[in-house]
Amino acid sequence: MTAAEIAARMAEAQAQAPAATVHGNFTEGLDPARLIGAAVLVPIILHPEPSVLLTLRSAKLNAHAGQVAFPGGRMEAGETPEQAALREAEEEVGLAIALPRLLGRLPNHLTGTGYRITPVVALVDPPLALVTDPGEVAECFELPLHVVLDPKAPQRRRTEFKGRMREFWVWPHEKHYIWGATAAILVNLARVLRPGLVHQTAAD
């Protein structure tokens, strides 16, 4: 998939009516007024075979340690999701703010931990000289875009939590376990980039 095709699909999605907010697992009873605003950058790296940049969170973190995530975090007062996503990406992985070419947003994603996450999609030209903050990121890695676009790649799994069965997405990777909000955001990205699926969204 070319940069022009990616940009065209994102532009089409932005022109449609806003997609519904996605509720992940364990969000029952959340007070919308108490949700914490957060944003993540979804960087598509324009190699000859494009890929999506992901991070493995540091094992030292208090929350979601060792999990796969997009660069991102809490929005500061007065920030837009775009500003927060770019700032966090620069802080976490050294991606200069001027490099990503922003294409638009995916549906907001609510988490059971009380966050409203806005994913911001961007194109980034290689090569990249990333420098991770070891306090936040253990490593960066990339998921090929052709895997994201493969409708057979993500798997729906179930587990019991507090007496109820919960379903969530998992993406294949030879080294890392990609699940939860990150996996659901990847599913929504795929549904935007694949023809005919703009209006569909995926929860955890």
Features:
3-stranded antiparallel β-sheet, 22% helix, 12 strands, alpha+beta, 204 residues
Short overview:
The chain is of the alpha+beta class. It has helices spanning about 5-15, 80-95, 145-150, 180-195, and strands spanning about 20-25, 35-45, 50-55, 70, 70-75, 100-105, 110, 115-125, 135-145, 155-160, 165-170, 180.
Topology:
Blueprint: H1 3-15, E1 22-23, E2 36-45, E3 51-57, E4 68-69, E5 72-74, H2 81-93, E6 101-105, E7 109-110, E8 115-124, E9 137-144, H3 145-148, E10 155-161, E11 164-171, E12 178-179, H4 180-193
Parallel strand pairs: 1-7, 2-8
Antiparallel strand pairs: 2-3, 2-5, 3-4, 3-9, 6-8, 7-8, 10-11, 11-12
Q: In CATH's first tier, which class applies?
A: Alpha Beta
User: What's the helix-strand series?
Assistant: HEEEEEHEEEEHEEEH
Q: Could you describe the largest sheet, including whether it forms a barrel?
A: 9 strands, mixed
The N- and C-terminal alpha carbons lie at a distance of 26 Å
CATH architecture call: Alpha-Beta Complex
Number of helical segments?
4
Mean pLDDT over all positions: 85
Shape: globular
Give the amount of beta strand, in percent: 25-35%
Low-pLDDT sequence parts: none
Query: CATH superfamily name?
Result: Nucleoside Triphosphate Pyrophosphohydrolase
Q: Could you tell me the radius of gyration in angstroms?
A: 16 Å
Question: Helical proportion?
Answer: 10-25%
Kindly name the structural category: alpha+beta
The number of distinct structural domains comes to 1
Would you report the number of β strands? 12
Briefly note the CATH topology name.
Answer: Nucleoside Triphosphate Pyrophosphohydrolase
